[in-house]
Structure formats: structure tokens, C-alpha cells
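Dear colleagues,

As part of the handover before I leave the project, I'm documenting each prediction I ran so the next person doesn't have to rerun anything. This entry is a single chain, and its sequence is reproduced below.
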Amino acid sequence: MQTLAQAQLERDRIKADKAKRDYDKALSESVRKIEADWFTEIQKRVCAEHLRTLAKLMTDAIGNETDETRIHYLLSDCAIDWLRDLGNAVEAASGEKMAFAGKAFKRTSKPRDLLTVSQWAERYRVIESGSNAPGKWDNSRAPHATEIMDSLSEHSPVRTVTFLKASGVSGTEILLNWIGYNIDHVQKDMMMVVPTLELRDRTFNPKLDKLFRETPVLAERINTKKRNSDNRQDLVEIGNMRLIKSGANSPDSLRAEHIPYVAADEIDAFPWDVGGEGDPKTLIENRQKTFSRAKSLYVSTPTTDGTSHIEASYLEGDQRHRLVPCPHCGHYHELEMANFHYKTSAESENLKKKQVTDAYFACPECGGIIEEGMKNKMLEQGRWIPRQPHVKNHRSYKITSFYIKFGLGLTWKQIAQKWVDAQGDTSKLKAFANTYLAESWKENETGLEAHVLMTRLETFPVEPMPLITVAGVDVQKDRLEMSVYKFAINEESWAVDHVLIGGDPTQDDVWNELAESMSHYGVQVAGVDTGYLSDMVHKFCDSRHWCFPVKGEDGAHRPVVEDERKRMNKLRYRRKRGRAVETVGTHQAKTLIFARLQMPQAGDGYIHYPNNGNFDDGYFNQLTAERLVTRLKAGKSLMVWEKKQERNEALDCAVYALAAFRLAPTLKTAKLKMQRIFDVDPVTGEALPQTTESPKATKWVF
């Protein structure tokens, strides 16, 4: 057995042996100073030789290019190639003795791959579900998206990117590709902003999880265990970077530390003021001030002119629009509504609705017909052209649904059908402009002038027309006013008369006179305002089931009349308390009426006025007594109807008449009634075939 002293000696011997081995290894890997100095001189000489060629290489790379961003890309590529050549040259000149040092220099001088966002997406992005084209991302499926994505690349000089878009043009996918690129390739802190925290949790977070799950390079970085432990509803931490997920309605969620990259989706749904701290776009940009290479992406479909965040941001940028070549003459032009054409034919089952049978574009240069079958090849050759090329570092893009490749979204024919279906309905026209044309809806802020409407006076046909007679009644302190209209199923209408019944509305004789007047004109359905003397209105309406007590409610979100289910629930709830008052959305009703008053020719929704003495300047002054204006309320810009003169009874009566028509029985029942009365089709006016079958009874009596 060893003694303690012997054990200590053995331990010291082992330590000494290890120290000698370490010394021998270090000695074998070391070089003499003269050799190190020689290698240093080699590096200096090779670097100097390459530096002398750099200026010419960059000049040759630029050539005659004038686009600033393109020049930036060319110089970046040139610098990458130059660094690679430098590493190879130093390695080759280092000799056998210093080969290890040459390899080390080459390794450290080798630059990272200079990927753009579109290159990263095509190399790594995978979409397994929820897509018309599942599988690996292919830039050729959305050729317009490539430049937008590349403007967000880390080596791009572009500071801000705005994408004013129609639906279905890959706006959200561009945003997700940038997030994936940043996580995998750049690793810089990023903030994602959506309109509300609720929308973040309900919509954005599932999309983000899908991105992480389906794209392998991201799934490797963010494994399931890490997703569950490190990632929250409001934050994802990946390595040294953070992805902060915020809602524009929450000042706390926007109060992050300074952050270089920000992506904001559907910004037209952002409030104009967040907790009294200002608009969210300004709050976001304040968080980026300390970063010279910060980047922002704003994506949205537009809403209303004058209140659209995305349109304002687009106008601040260089305003790029997409041009494509004509397949016939090669002329580059924009696919816009002015050159869009379609053919229609009446649908046999529903004669008021036209069916689009064909849709195409006409080249503005040669007039050649561009069929949809030519679209895909044409879109692949498209170019983004700025209208404001002097604006630097802010690229703003705008594109419509016409640029979706065939098979990946709505066809031109389907878009044309949406346009045809929207005619005469302001809410549908607005949705079409926003969703398919990427246009903000321009409300009529100046209103209408009475003398313009006087030019619409016409002589009505003498023969009876297959129409429903509708009245709208406004109650004043010293009179009742009633407008009588005849409505067709497609809401085309003919004004019959505007009646003033003087007297005290608290007295029954005034209401009796109203009843006589309604009987005289054959009124079949009516809406009576309950804003004044509601008890008298209820008394009048309770004995006339075809007469609706109505009350106007402001607010752009309120429909002209509530949907049937809400109305029935209200009726059941108030059955014991008497007849329910029907709510009328006056904002939408007035907007719709004013749009119809500006229709250039008769059709669905058109309003006709007879050439008689009751429809004079005084009447049309009342009808046009309001205008739509923009007002700032509670820090938010809103469109509101304001009076430009005190008397507006004709407009109110028109609103109540429209509401009464929509409150009448379903159009199917109304159509049956009109057939029973006139023995003609309610739209075409053609005689219906005679039948011995009795019409089915309805609950409604006209």
C-alpha cells in the first residue's frame, strides 16, 4: 500500500506529464516570429492588390444602372464576391508552412450568404395547409410579391414598405415570409402589430404557429418544447431575438423597448388614438428612432377616403403600380377598371340579376382583347413602376385582384359578377372598391345640389306598373309630412307625391287625414317616425299591421334595417309591451339614397321623379339638405351626415320609405302579391300564364 507521500508524488508526476504534453502541442502549433511576420506581409500585399481592383469591379458592376436600390444590390453582390476572392488568394499565397493560417483567414473572411426575403422563402418556406397551392413556396405563383419582399431584405436600403392591396394577393404571406426570414437569417428584434389583442390571439397567433410548424428551418429553431415554455401570447424568444406581438388598441402592448423591425397588418382597422397617446403608427415609429437600418412594413386593404391609414402611407411613398405587357403589341399598361369589359345575360330563375358570361381586358394602346387564358404569362413579365421616383427609402405598392394568377383566386369573370351584383347597393359597392380594386371609398362630402336633381324630372307611363306603394312619414310639431314611392323588387323606385298635412299631431283628426291620404294613394306599406309623439305614432300603427313605427339611429355600422333574426327576437321580447319600434340605420340609408340620386341611368336602385308641381326647388332642397363630412370625434376621424339647412323632411321621408320597403314581407312574398294584383311579372311587366290554382295565402295584406 502506498503511503500518503508516495500518492502525492504520483499525483505531481501526472500533472507534470500533462503540462509537458500541453507544452509540446502548443510548440508544434506555434510558428517562429519570422514566419508570422512573413504571413502578415503576405496578407497586406494580397489585400492591397485586391483593394486596387475593388473600385473598378464596383464601377463595372453598376454599369449604366440608375436605380438606387438596384445599385445597392449590385454593390453588395460585388463586395461579397470580392471577399471570397480575397480569402482564396490569401490561402493560395500562404504556402505549406502557413497553410493553417491561410485557411483560417479564408474562413473568417467568408461572408454570410446574402439572401433576399424572396430567396429565403423559395428556399425554405413550406405551406402545408390553407392554401390553393400547398407545398414549397414558389415566387412565380405571385410574381408581384417578389420585389415587395426583397425591399425588406437586410441589405436593401429601403426603410419603409407600404402594401395597399386587394384581397387574395398574398399580403399576409409576404408578412409571414419576412418574419421567417428575420428569425432564421437576420436575428433582429421585431414587433408585429395587428388591430386588436383579441385579433392577435384569435387569428395571428394560429397563423404564426402554422408558419413555425410547417417550415422545417423554423421548426428546428423553435421546437415544440421551446414553443410551449418560452413563447407566450405576446412574445416569442428565439436565440438572441424577440418577436413582440402587439395590438394597436393597447398602449401597453405598443410600449416596447426600442426595436428595429416592425410589421403591421390591416392598419386601416387601427384606431386613430390609443389611450390618448396618439395614433399607433407614430408610436411604432418612435420605437425605431435609434436604429439607422430600421425597417417597417404596413399592409392593409383600404377603407374610406380621408380616414384610411394605408392610403395615407401609400401616398407618402413612391407610389408604385404594376404594369404588364399586352400579349398583342407588348405595350406595358396597368390592369384597371377603365379597360375592363364584360358581357352579361339575364338569369332565367331570377330576372333582376344579370349573369356575367365573359370578362376580358382591352389594351389601351392597340385595343387588342386580352383573355384570361393569357393572364399568367403576362403577369410573370410585370414591372413595378413608381409614380414618385424622387421619394427614396419608402416604397409603396398598390395592386388589385386582377393580378391574381389563374387558378389561385377569383377569376376576372367572378370579379365582374361581383361588380354587377353590387350595382345600386352602396355597401356592396364600397366593399367591391375596397376588396377588389384596393381603392378607398370616396364618400360624397359636398352633398348634392337641388338644381342638379331637377334635371332628372320625367313623365311616368300611364299604364299601371307592377310595383309596391310605400310611404315614409315624418312627424313635426305642427304637421305631418309624407312621401309616397312605388318600389320594384330591385329597389328601383318612382316618387309619386310629397304630402304636407298641417295641424296639431296630438289630435286624432290629423292622423285621420293621414290615413285618408294613404288610402288615396293606395299605400301598402309605410314607415312612421317615432322621434316625436311616439304614443300617437303607436296608436296609429297598432291598428295597421302594414304600418311600421320606426326610429332613426346614427352610426355607419348600422344597417338600413336589422336582419330578420334580430327583429324577430325583439318582437318576441316586446310582445307584452306593445309593438316594437323598428331601428333604421340613417347613415347607411342616406349614403345609399345619395348614391342612387347620382346614378347616370335607370336600373337597379334608380330613383325616378315625376315632372309635376310638387317636386320643385323646395322639395329637392329638403332632399339634399345634408352632406357627408369628416369630423374628428374622440381622437378618431369619422364620416358623419350634417345639415346644410334646417329643413330636411323630404330626406327623412325617403329614408323611412326605403326602410319600410325592406321591412315588408320577403321579396318572394311581395313578388307573389304583385303577380296576384297585376297578373304580370313584377320586373319585366310581361303577362303571366293563366292558372286555375289559387295563390297561397300569406300573413301580409296589401
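The chain has four domains: 1-26, 31-109, 117-322+384-409, 450-678. Confidence is low (pLDDT under 50) at residues 225-230, 676-702.

All the best with the project,
I.
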